[in-house]
User: Fold this.
Amino acid sequence: MAKEHPLVAVTRRLPEPAMRRLQEADLVLRVWPESAPPPPGDLAALAAGCHGILCLLTDRIDAAFLDAAGPSLRVVSQMAVGVDNIDLAACTARGIPVGHTPGVLTEATADLTLALMLATARRLVAAAADVKAGKWTTWDPLGWVGPDLHSSTVGIVGLGRIGAAVARRLSGFGVEVLYHNRRPSLMAEELGAAYVSFDELLRRSDFVTLHCPYTSATHHLVNAETLALMKPSAILVNTSRGGVVDQEALCAALAAGKIAGAGLDVTTPEPLPADHPLLTLPNVVVLPHIGSASLPTRLLMANMAVDNLLVGLEGGRLPHCANPMP
Ligand code: GLV
Assistant:
């Protein structure tokens, strides 16, 4: 019998070593050649008749996509830890395992969270832009001042892997760490983090940093009502998913001075249009979803996605599977 060469759709070029692994495996590859994600129709066409797909968080993998891909599809492997772009239930119902990349991006994302806290509080982006624009005319006692991170109270929403890595870093800043989870975390004591209700966290924190997954339960967790509980001096940091925040309510709260600033690595939509009202606010730092964007981390993620894909094509149990498989 002729040996099967599984057909695999790859929705963007991956870091070269991972690309090479795919090329050297016994696969027939369909690689989306552009740097922008495939529009839904092209994504479906790319995956039609495939046995596997290696996708990114910018690709919508829903029931319509799965129908278009067809019954040959055996595995969805995503190069990301978050899988809110994937209809997990629809994949599970079809017996398709969904691979993702937990763990390897924890430290890079925690690093970026600290960078965003400091960049927002200490006004790094505005200060650096002013230097470039020739607006650094003197050492100014009132110039580019902001709140301290050290000695502050930081509220971590979601003390999972990334939230815990943020707490670990904060121990060097002499801050009080509060956290809120669906249930108290076993790691909290070792991290010096105190469990409080979500409302108490919002009321007491100088920085609120979001590290929960994006689900129907966390959709717009930060909204007009919950923003109203925050201190007027507080800063919101989001490196999870844009949908956790009601962005219109956030814009309004920032414009009205109900909170002092926001550092956002994630927005709705992504990319955020350059003329979006958020970008006109002086107290906001927006980054283009780069939490995991260190070279070593991106390579680890790509390799983990290739590992999941290859195991899935063989019908094995994925090393990192996001949906329940029998
Ligand atoms: C990035 O946001 C990821 O989920 O990996």
The chain has a mean pLDDT of 97. Residues 7-103+295-313 form a domain with the Rossmann fold fold (CATH 3.40.50.720). Residues 57, 80-82, 105, 291-292 surround glyoxylic acid (CB under 6 Å).
